[in-house]
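Exam revision sheet. Question 4 asks you to relate a sequence to its structure. Input first:
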Amino acid sequence: MNFQPLIPLGGLPGWVLLNKTLERQTEVFNKSPQIIRDTDYFEQNIGSVLTAEDLVSDRRLLRVALGAFGLSDQINDRALLQKVLEEGTADRGALANRLGDTRYKQFADAFGFADKIVPNTILLSFGADITDKYRQREFEVAVGDQDESLRLAMNLKREIGDLVSSDSPNDTIWFQIMGTPPLRKVFEVALGLPSSFGQLDIDKQLEIFKDQSRNQFGLDKLSELTDDDLQEKLIQRYLLRDQISAIQVQSSSATALTLLQSVPSPFSTT
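Answer key, structure tokens:
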């Protein structure tokens, strides 16, 4: 059994406490027997994997590979995963490019089964690179088992810097965020966008994301999110709004229960 992170508080107070203890907690978590077994097995065996079929046929390897990209819940969809890996990303019509979730593209790019003469799995540093990502993601999953909002905040803090500092145009980065569910959720909540927002035309969604980011955070270009203070402001706004929403739901449920309890029973004799 893996070490379970200590998350005594939720919301913004929980975020502050988690960051104060993060180094020590992740150190202990990474020494969990299951984590050590998973990562050792991956590093020792991934070098012999030369095709997508090799990878999806070994459930232990596949579990670590998917976990490194936040795709653990897809482990039973071997046919889809094999197709994603075999088609790669060089062709615009490849499955990874057509799926709405950009994590599949990252997954296919990392292994390089389709787009390179030899896959990245034979590189000496490849196993360690993937297991490092796996450890980080698994700790976030463990945090999410107790508080999903904190997990999403950690995910954003880990990913957003590299994403917004790329050479891609601003709109392209926005589309990457919109196509990555964990990142999209943080932005939607932080900006106070309704649950029906995702039903709008994709270009209209982009326009609203950009307008609201500018109005609420003074954010003209996503590259500005390389600033740690601005990142933290976004995360704090997300956690506060998420907590307020949870309180409102609880309050509404409690009110509804009180009203139901106050209704006389049809079988009452009084």
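Marking note for examiners. The longest helix spans residues 228-262.
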